[in-house]
Target: Peptidase A2 domain-containing protein
Amino acid sequence: MSMDFARRQGLQILPMSSHSVKAANGAKIALAGTVDAPFGVMGTSKIELLRFHVMATGVTDVILGHRFLQLTKAFTRFRAQIVHTARRARGSRLRHVRFLQGSVQQVRGYLDHGRIDAVADTGSDVTLLSSLYARERGLKVSYNRQDQVELEFADGSTMWTQGCVRDVDWKYDSVTPSTHRLDAYILNSLPCGVLIGYDVLYATDAFAMHADALFSQYDRDSDIEDTLDHNLNYIQRRSQAGGPETALEAWQAAKTLALSRYGVAQ
Model:
């Protein structure tokens, strides 16, 4: 959660000892503290008290972790209710990458026939490869300017990719294997070998059709509080009237319901 959002919502920020988390470009993002806040999925009555880590320089209001996906089944049970919002303003060159290093959601598969446990990140607009991985695999990289894109990370910092591998095959290692052709951009500082972006994950229905290929070291851990991983961004829920609710409206509705149940007046 960004500090600005926490303050706008009137949430109490609990201080914590000096701590930081790394973004996809290797930059360290300072964590200012934690916020305990009620959170619920619209259309359900269940409210969970979640612990959010507050980023001092976060540019996204709320980044929800992998454990949240497990808790809510957002990409399986409620997949049909997800509404996609425009990720880039018209004319903007920036591609968002909200990856935060930690216990991430991973996916087993084959990239250009090479076996890899990749990071599955719904907070990334693009699929990324580290330059080391591309070099070790002998992948053909185009370094032309038109094959480079500018990325914006969770703290608002930006960086250009170094190149692109075009039309590379990605295949899920699952009981229902399927192969998909994609473009993958090279980021020298990427802390993992391969990061599969949101467009690929959603277009291939990865969380339903290839759930057996997804894993995390926290799969058997029921504690959601310390998760700083798999980023779920830009998701809206359909309202009863059929129109999309903004993330802020959904948050306000969940907050109001939860606080009323706790007997706290706003």
In short: The CA atoms of residues 130 and 136 lie 10 Å apart. The first strand starts at residue 20 and ends at 22. The radius of gyration is 19 Å.
